[in-house]
Amino acid sequence: MSGEDGGRTNLRMPEDDEVFATVTEMLGANRVKVRCADGTERTARIPGKMQKRVWIREDDVVLVSPWDWQEEKADITWRYEKSDADQLRQEGHIQ
Predict the structure, then answer these.
(1) Residue 13: pLDDT band by 50, 70, 90 thresholds?
(2) Where would I find the S1-like domain in this sequence (predicted)?
(3) Which DSSP category does 85 fall into?
(4) Residues 30-59: pLDDT tens digits?
């Protein structure tokens, strides 16, 4: 079930409290700077369960869940592969 056959794959879409974001800068200490689809720059945290399994780099497309009590911070909940990010751009979900 890969996207190599030219067909559309079903991707994980944002839930109610999640937004698309692009990683703009690596800050260290499991933190990254992201530009969210709603136009806000946030400092996002890479949760422990993702740290060793998912490598996050600059320009990656991710899903973040903004914090309720601090609008300028968020947690990363998902990282898209490059081919998945290209599909999201083609379908108009992200720029």
Answers:
(1) confident
(2) 7-81
(3) H
(4) 999 999 988 889 999 998 888 778 888 899
- The residue written with tokens 């703009």 in the block is 24
Paired tokens of 57: 């780099």
What are the Cα distances from residue 92, in Å, to 3, 37, 80, 88?
A: 18, 12, 15, 6
**Alpha-carbon gap, residue 13 to 20, rounded angstroms:** 9
Residue spans of the domains in the chain: they are 13-81
Surface-to-core class of residue 87, CB atoms within 10 Å of its CB (0-12 exposed, 13-18 middle, 19+ buried): middle
Is the pTM here over 0.70, yes or no?
A: yes
Q: What's the CATH fold of domain 13-81?
A: OB fold (Dihydrolipoamide Acetyltransferase, E2P) (2.40.50)
| Dist. CA 54–CA 75, nearest whole Å | 14
Counting every residue written for the chain, the total comes to: 95
